[in-house]
Amino acid sequence: MNTTSQTIYAFNAHSDLTSWYVVNDGVMGGLSGSKLTLSGDHFGVFEGEVSTKNNGGFTMIKHNCSISDVKKYSKIVLKIKGDGKTYQFRIKDDRGHYYSYVQTFDTSNNKETIELKLSDFKPAFRGRTLNIPSFAKSTIEQVAILIGNKKQEHFRLEISEITLQ
C-alpha cells in the first residue's frame, strides 16, 4: 500500500449537494426523514429523525463516484463530528449490485477521524450479511452513510471529508 490518499468527497463552501441523494425508509413504508445541508463552517450535515413506526427504521445519504485503482489503498478515512450514535458506512463496487459492503462505526460528540479498513467491509443486503467474500475490489462506484439503530432517535452527523488512504 502506498501513503498517498484519494479524496472521495470533501465538503467545502462550493459543494454541490445535488450529487448526494437521500433515501429514507419511506421506500418500504417507513416514516423516517432526513436531509443533507451545508453548515456555515462547510461541513456536510446529515440530520433527521429515524422512526420505527410503520416498519421503518433507517435513513441514508449516498453519493455516486467513479474510483479505480482502489487496491492501492487499505482504508477509508472519515473526518467527522458525530453525535454519539452508531452509523454504517457503505460502499458499492458496482452501482448495479443490489447489495453493499458495510461497516459500522461509532461516533463521539467531538471532531474525530474514523478509519475503516477496506478488508473489514462485509457484503450485506437489507441488514443481512451475505455469503460472499468481503470487499476486495478495484473500483468504488458509490458510497453511503446510513443510520438505523432499531430505535426512534434524532441524529446529526457532520462530515468534513471522505478519503481513501
Could you walk me through the main structural features you see in this protein, from its secondary elements to its overall organization?
By secondary structure, the chain is an all-beta fold. It has one domain: Sandwich (Jelly Rolls). The protein has strands spanning 6-10, 20-24, 33-38, 44-50, 59-67, 75-81, 86-92, 100-106, 111-117, 122-125, 128-129, 140-147, 153-164. It has a seven-stranded antiparallel beta sheet, with no helix packed on it. Strands 1, 3, 4, 6, 9 and 13 form a six-stranded antiparallel beta sheet that branches. Strand 3 (33-38) and strand 4 form a beta hairpin.
Please outline what is shown here.
With 165 residues, the protein is mainly beta. It has no helices and 13 strands.
Q: What's the CATH class label?
A: Mainly Beta
Largest sheet report:
7 strands, antiparallel
- What strand line-up does the widest sheet have? 2-5-12-7-8-10-11
Radius of gyration: 15 Å
CATH superfamily annotation: Galactose-binding domain-like
| Low-pLDDT residue spans | none
If helices are DSSP runs of H or I spanning 4 or more residues, what is the number of helices? 0
Would you tell me the overall average pLDDT?
Answer: 96
At CATH level 3, the topology is: Jelly Rolls
Portion in beta strands:
over 45%
Helix content: under 10%
Total tally of structural domains:
1
Number of strands: 13
SSE-based structural type: mainly beta
Terminal-residue CA separation = 9 Å
- Quick one: overall form? globular
SSE string, helix = H, strand = E?
EEEEEEEEEEEEE
Corresponding CATH architecture: Sandwich
